[in-house]
Automatic annotation (TrEMBL):
A Pfam cross-reference name: CsbD
InterPro entries: CsbD, YjbJ_sf
Family membership noted in the UniProt record: Belongs to the UPF0337 (CsbD) family.
Name the record gives this protein: CsbD family protein
Sequence ranges assigned to domain CsbD-like in this UniProt record: 5-55
Organism: Pseudoroseomonas ludipueritiae
Length: 79
């Protein structure tokens, strides 16, 4: 089962690559920057989808990791 974040992230990343290339060809720095932004946003969205898939596949491991991180942060008194 593929998470919708992975699909939309891949699409946004591909659009960002095209947008950056168009900005390079036309010399439009603004379009190039938007393309780079869309690539970064798409990659982050794809990673979020991968994380969701991992949590669905291994829920117990995910809970234990989260509890461990919470314990360490609690001991450091960051929160």
């Amino acid at each position: 089962m593929v998470d919708e974040n992975r699909v939309s992230g891949a699409a946004r990343d591909a659009f960002g690559r095209v947008q950056e290339a168009a900005g390079n060809l036309t010399g439009d720095n603004r379009m190039q920057a938007r393309g780079m932004y869309n690539q970064a946003h798409g990659s982050a969205e794809n990673m979020l989808g991968q994380l969701g898939d991992c949590i669905r596949e291994q829920p117990l491991t995910s809970v234990l990791i989260g509890a461990g991180i919470g314990y360490v942060l609690g001991r450091l008194r960051i929160l």
